[in-house]
Amino acid sequence: MEIHLLVIEDNPADFRLVQVMLEGCESPSFSIVHACLLEEGLETLAAGCQDALLLDIGLPDSRGLEGLERILAAHPALPVVILTGADDESLGMDAISRGASDYLVKGAIETNLLVRSLRYAMERKRLEAELRESEDKLRRKNTEMEADLHIAQVVQRKFLRQRFGSSDRITIEYRHLPHSAVGGDFFSFTPLHEGGLGVFVGDVVGHGISAALFLSLLKSATDRACRAHGTEPGQYMRLLNDELLEYMDFNFITAVYGHLRFFSEGAEFTFSNAGHPMPALYRRSSRKAQLLGAAGTILGALPDRHYEESTVRLDRGDRIFLYTDGIPEARNGKGGLIGFDEMSGLVEGADLPDLSETLDLIMKEVYSHIGEYGIDDDIVLIGIEIR
After folding, report:
1. H or E segment and range at residue 260
2. What is the pTM of this model?
3. How many H helices and E strands in the chain?
4. Which of 205, 192, 203 is nearest to 231 (CA)?
5. Which of 57, 222, 252, 286 reaches 20 to 30 Å from 30, CA-CA?
6. How far, in Å, CA of 330 to CA of 337, rounded?
7. Degrees (nearest 5) of the Cα angle 286, 287, 292?
8. Pairing relationship of beta strands 52-56 and 2-8 according to DSSP bridges
9. Contact in structure between 282 and 318 (CB atoms under 8 Å)
10. Are 56 and 36 in contact (CB under 8 A)?
11. Pairing state of beta strands 253-263 and 310-315?
């Protein structure tokens, strides 16, 4: 291996000393070019073919670190070793902070130290170049990922864009807060041709990209289940479980599906639960809330599952609240959870005439609980009021 070395040194004796030290080296060997002035050295570098530079910082046409700065501005990838006088050692350290690879003190140089310093300077610059290349690749990859995330956000917003707000029979409000750019929670409101409304809320275990990738699959599966068994929540869940089982090798889904059927004086809510947090029923007449149970296992884990159906009668003014576990499992800085059993109390404490304001008050209580800790899971909160 031959190293092409430029030495910019105005003192002939100092240059000759370097030359003598390197002449006998064989591994590596050195091809040395000498320049007495900075301008001469810059011209040599412009011609190319130099692997490293040994630079005196006390040149006639340059003082201090001016020469180093000019050289690195024109040749940032060049390994530069600084030569300083015995009283300039602090200047050598300053040179390193400004981009030099190493420094040597004149009068204290011997052959092995000189060769090691030059080889170290070249290796350092090689590693810096590799690091810059890796950073550039990572930056490009991050840009691509951000673009993909933006597309995923747009697609997910379209999936979750629910325009069913209110009618003469029902008012629906919801809040959706993904933990990351895209989330793993899904919900839908589907008017059924048999009559009534199908309501679904599901939570793919985990959050972020891995969970969000299942949302397109979940949407198409729930659409098919709704067409086949929209008024039969138990059969709906059974079909959905069988469809998802083929694809859910590493994930599973918890969900609630309910069918709202309307009468002249109110409505009926029949639902099935697949391992999901229990819906909360708020009675306007008593101003009390209760959690509604229905047995059923998670979706996509086991075949041939049975999902129990449960039905409640709803009067005008009554409300059903559906939510994902991001609310009861919201934790504060001390690790304390809101808790599943506290959901009825949370609903009762947000007793406001306007449903939208009620959801805002519930979310305010959630944020009050977590403080500066921040949410650590996706959150969906749905409120349904019978009119």
Report:
1. strand 253-263
2. 0.65
3. 10, 15
4. 192
5. 57
6. 5
7. 90
8. parallel
9. yes
10. no
11. unpaired
